[in-house]
Amino acid sequence: MQIMISGIPVEVCKKDIKNMHLYVKPPNGKVSVSAPLNMSDEAIERFVRSKSSWIKKHVNKFEGQPHKSQREYVSGETLYVWGKQYFLQVQYGTGKNMLVLSGDKAILTVRKGSTAKQRDNFVKEWYRELLKREVARLLPKWEELTRLNCDSWQTKYMKTRWGTCNTVTRKIWLNLQLAQKNPECLEYVILHELLHLIEKNHNARFLSLMDTYMPYWRQIKRQLNGQDY
Ligand SMILES: [Zn+2]
What we know:
The protein is α/β, with parallel strands linked by helices. The chain has helices at 41-50, 52-64, 116-146, 183-195, 204-213, 217-225; strands at 2-5, 8-15, 21-25, 30-36, 78-81, 84-92, 98-102, 105-110, 152-156, 163-166, 171-175.
């Protein structure tokens, strides 16, 4: 089901939950609402309409932000690493590309004629190395705590999801963009995907497992998804 609010599509998703939640998700500002299973479509629509100014405000905020693909990787742009903001300083070299963090600067060394796409590819791989190092450290910690083990894991750039878990192959995928967020966001996603190994759905059992292992997970989820309440 989908509701249109001033030309903005709002995806409705019914779940085994107690309260309605409205989200505007990065990176594109996609709007979705989750509602309790027994709530009528009219009541959901009424709720969403009552939040129309909130929705418009937050969607606009996303549209005002430069999307990753539109970045040019020139000095003055901002870059987030583990939740901290850095200002990009581009310098030219003839050797290897490099990205070094120093104070609040992210010093990117690239070839002068390189395109935004080539710089983007380099920065993505830089994030990947950073993320892989943290996953290698944090995944065993959560596997031990939950006594759940995945068979393999990999990182990739995803537009709409922070992580996925294939319960058949027991493989976990983690979004490269997690390296831009606070490290606790990565821990939250790791735990979430591990729990899918024993519970596929986001049902009451899943939520209570989340509560057991990470009582403050809702706060982190809000941070991750730009959700206000
Ligand atoms: Zn999930």
